[in-house]
Amino acid sequence: MKTPEDHGGSATQPALAPHSLAGQREAAAERRAQYPYRFPVDRRQLGGKFTVKENSRRLLRFFYFERRLMHALGSWTLTIPDYEVKLETGRHIFYHADAARFLRERLTEQEFRPKAIDAHRDAEIDRFIDEMLSAASPAELLVGVHQVVGKAIATTYRHHIDDTDQVTDVPTIRCLRRILTDYEPMLAWADAAIDAYIAGGVEEAKLSVWRWHLSRLLASIGGITGADPRGEAPVPLRIDTKPYERGTVPMRDSRFDTFKHTGDYDAADVAKRFDKDSYEAIRLRFIRTQRDEVDAIEAFGTFCWDIRFKDFDAEYDLARVTWDEARHTEIGHRAMLASGYDPYELRNRLTSSTCRGPMDPAFAMAEINLFGEVGVLKTINDLIDTAANRNDELLRHISDYIRADERTHVRKGTHILDIMTKLDAKALELRTRELFTECLISLGAIKKDIDMQTLSREEIEHLVGE
User: Fold this and answer.
1) Which domains, from first to last, does the chain contain?
2) Do 90 and 146 form a contact (C-beta atoms < 8 A)?
3) CB 257 within 8 A of CB 348
4) Least confidently predicted of 6-20, 51-65, 80-94, 434-448
5) pLDDT tens digit string along 3-54?
6) At residue 406, what are phi and psi to the nearest 5 degrees?
7) Alpha-carbon span 363 to 172, nearest angstrom
8) What contacts 184, CB < 8 A, 6 or more positions away?
9) Whole-angstrom Cα distance, residue 299 to residue 318?
10) Fewer C-beta within 10 Å: the chain N or C terminus?
11) What is the pTM of this model?
12) CA triplet 123, 129, 133: central angle to 5 degrees?
């Protein structure tokens, strides 16, 4: 009987495959020598630290962190006053939602059913998120979301890419690399924004104390993977004294001159720049409305929090719409500049957010979707045609893109409303009109009259101004 040594190997590691036949290896070498192309050699090797089970456990935890960060940022959209931070937060909500979607898809390829993924909960992570959301200021929020959790997640993803099998687990590697393309600019922006807060007078020492506090709390739950050595949790936690609740009042920074007693820009300005029905008046009103979709970032972001865990697809769609509304706000801001205005000279309308902030999410969503976005679609076609006829390329260009977005939002809104409420369409619209009528009376946008009826859809579209 031949031993491994007879084939030129050792007792533990044969030099040749045990079933190679005479001459096959030599023939293969000859064929390779005669092959004319020398392609790059793939140096990846089999072998990694994780079984499929452990890989999935970690990915599920990553998914949960991303989902909770989407919720978390959404809950602060009303409370953040600073324009640039509110705008960026609208983007980041979607970045975390998209990361959750990528991870969810990969988990379904590793023997997890979507319902099981969506039903997953982690009380330790939830407690961490609530403490992080108990930030005393937007600067503290950015420290927690980005400098503590965000940087820890990015580091963990890079380590996972290095540690998992480079051949068998390529789909996970690609998933994490795609997510990191959003993390890199997001974290860089956050560092610069925190520096701006410090330069503007926010006390750096307080931010450092908060950073250390949250870092210790994260370490106490095993870090992002849950597998790191656990330290002692810091005490006391803010949420032990006061449980976290999202804000309900829309905030703006000191550069804005705001109003909420009307939806009419001329009434708010106490003067009119152009004749009410002139093209110039309609043009400026449209551009101002887009800049003031800062309130739509607040609305859709807040909904991400208010309907958390009801339906992942609805959460994802809300996050996507929030990102779109951040773009619309940018579009309006830049169009004001391109039209020769300082954007901060034009007053900012808070009417809608003031009403929607404290409202049940189903009715708040119905107002912005059924009245606001549908209202835009009623008039935007004529606006685009008129802009084209007047060779107004700026307005034609931006409104063309906004029309496409609003059509998508109205379509997505149908599914989102189905998740939010069991009311039929007629009952939902009526109750929404009643609530907004009451709110507009309380703001002084309309006068209370004992004989006044609930406002119509068209009246609300006009008075709210979306």
Assistant:
1) 52-230 (1.10.620.20), 258-464 (1.20.1260)
2) no
3) yes
4) 6-20
5) 444 444 455 555 556 788 888 999 999 999 999 999 998 899 999 999 999 9
6) -65, -35
7) 40
8) 154
9) 10
10) N
11) 0.92
12) 145
Task: Give the model confidence (pLDDT) of 161-177 as tens digits.
Answer: 999 999 999 999 999 99
CA separation for the pair 423, 143 (Å, rounded): 41
Residue 466 near residue 375, CB atoms below 8 Å: yes
At residue 15, the 3 state secondary structure works out as coil
Task: Give me the numbers of helices (H) and strands (E) for the chain, helices first please.
Answer: 20, 2
Instruction: Give, in degrees to the nearest 5, the angle at Cα 409 between 95 and 339.
Output: 85
Residue type, 194: I
Cα(164)–Cα(52) distance, rounded to whole angstroms? 10
Average pLDDT value over all residues in the chain? 93
Give 270's contacts (C-beta < 8 A, 6+ positions apart). none
Cα separations (Å) of 156 from 162, 195, 199, 211, 223?
Answer: 10, 25, 30, 18, 9
Q: Which of 222, 347, 243, 339 is nearest to 294 (CA)?
A: 347
Rg of the chain on CA atoms, in Å: 28
Counting beta carbons within 10 angstroms of the beta carbon of residue 57, is it exposed (0 to 12), middle (13 to 18) or buried (19 or more)? Answer: middle
Nearest CA among 48, 465, 59, 117 for reference residue 291: 465
Task: Show the tokens assigned to 462.
Answer: 């006009």
- The two three-digit tokens of residue 369, written as one number: 């979707």
Distance of CA 99 to the CA centre of its chain: 10
Residue 124 has pLDDT above 50, yes or no: yes
202: left (phi over 0), alpha (psi -120 to 50) or beta: beta
Determine the distance from the C-alpha atom of residue 128 to the mean position of all C-alpha atoms in its chain, rounded to a whole number.
19
Give the integer Cα–Cα distance in Å for 172 and 55: 9
